[in-house]
Amino acid sequence: MAEMSTLPRKEEEVDGVEKAVKTLEDTKAGIQGLVDAGIDKLPPFFFVSPEVIHDHPTMTDLHLHTDFQFPIIDLKDILDPAEHKGIVEKIRSASEEWGFFQVTNHGIPEQVLKEALDGVKRFNEQPREAKMTYYARGNGAVRYYTNYLLQKKGVGWRDTLACVMAPNPAPEKYPSVCRDIFMEYSKHVRKLGEVILGLLSEALGLDPDHLKDIGCSEGYAFHCQYYPACPEPDRTLGLMRHRDPDFFTVLLQNQIEGLQVLHRGYWVDVPPMEGALTINIGDLLQLVSNDKFKSADHRVLAKNVGPRMSLACLFTTDLQPSEKVYGPVEQLLSPDNPALYKGTTIPNYLKTYVTKPGNGLSVLKL
Fold first, then answer.
1. Nearest CA to 145 among 124, 164, 126, 129?
2. Where's the Fe2OG dioxygenase domain (predicted)?
3. Residue 192 and residue 94: Cα distance in Å, rounded?
């Protein structure tokens, strides 16, 4: 009689990952807790297959390929009518071709940017006892967690602090070590978000207030990612390949590389620039623009240096219950450009997003 295979079934492997993550979660210490414990090898449930890590080649020598030069847009002369049109055109091109761009001279003081990242660092480097009271999943004004969704393709090397900042801020619930600077940064990023939304509206050929008027900036939340130095960065990822479930994101990051965007079949590094902010188009803006603007796949590599830190401000409306239906903007439609999507509520979209197959399949097409 042939011997029974001793190899675990895929279901058993997934169960093992879930149990291992549950054990980690029960500590409420996150990835930083593993680092504090002095591990020098990755626990196996962090392993990501080479096929996933190397699903596309990485573009190198970007200066030799003009089609792969990451868009950087200077907002300094945004109020100058002679320069404004050119800025809108650059944003239109970047939103169509990349779904990503960086902005400089955006008006947020560099000291505020620095202190916001310092707040992320202070929270994550507190003793476990100070952080564990915030450890939670699901909804809530403040949540601290490791990997929001369990990924069958691997578990990311990062911890996250999420804070709802609008429309109903709850400063009394924010961690005291970062409360004041989060409130200060929130005031600045709200103003910038409305400026960006106006430019995006113009880039679509709409009235500058159009996207704001339909609710694209009604709510926003901070998602603060903390990536400690990884002992085996070639065997995992910091953040799996994904697209953002919002209208657009304003990202602040420190000077450690890792963020990549998928462009024309290649992973392209998003260069950290002192004082710059990265803007990316989310699924919901791709939907309302009827594919005029693209929500791009992106990911974060694990690094053997760190911590890498970022503060992403996601502009969306899912932070308050609503049955409002979003679909392609009527002014953008014509017999030659019919609607590509049916209207949907944000809750229905998110229900699909959290159960999607992932790895490049757009939720909007499901």
1. 124
2. 217-321
3. 18
pLDDT of residue 23: 83
What DSSP string runs through 231-260? SSGGG-EEEEEE--SSSEEEEEE-S---EE
Percent of the chain with pLDDT over 90: 70
User: Which residue ranges form the domains of the chain, and what is each CATH number?
Assistant: 56-322 (2.60.120.330)
Contact between 286 and 134 (Cβ < 8 Å)? no
Q: pLDDT digits over 231-280, tens only?
A: 999 999 999 999 999 999 999 999 999 999 999 999 999 989 999 999 99
State the Cα–Cα distance between residues 227 and 229, nearest whole angstrom. 7
In angstroms, the CA 334 to CA 346 distance is 25
> Helix, strand or coil for residue 267?
strand
For 160-188, the pLDDT digits (tens) are 999 999 998 999 999 999 999 999 999 99
What pLDDT is attached to residue 4?
38
Helix (H, G, I), strand (E, B) or coil at 118: helix
In this prediction, the residues of the chain whose per-residue pLDDT falls under 50 are 1-9
Question: What is the residue whose two structure tokens read 């009527």?
Answer: 330
Q: φ, ψ for residue 223 (rounded to 5)?
A: -120, 105
C-beta of residue 363 within 8 angstroms of C-beta of residue 352: yes
Burial of 186 (0-12, 13-18, 19+ CB in 10 A): buried
Pairing of strands 100-104, 72-74: parallel
User: How far apart are alpha carbons 130 and 143 in whole angstroms?
Assistant: 13
Provide the Cα torsion 200, 294, 273, 114; round to 10°.
Answer: 70
**Half-sphere CA count of 335, side-chain side, radius 13 A:** 0
pLDDT value of residue 134:
94
Contact between 186 and 165 under an 8 Å Cβ cutoff? The reply is: yes
- Residue environment code for 75-102, b if the CB has 16+ CB neighbours within 10 A, otherwise e: beebeeeeeeeebbebbbebbebbbbbb
Contact of 344 with 326, CB cutoff 8 Å: yes
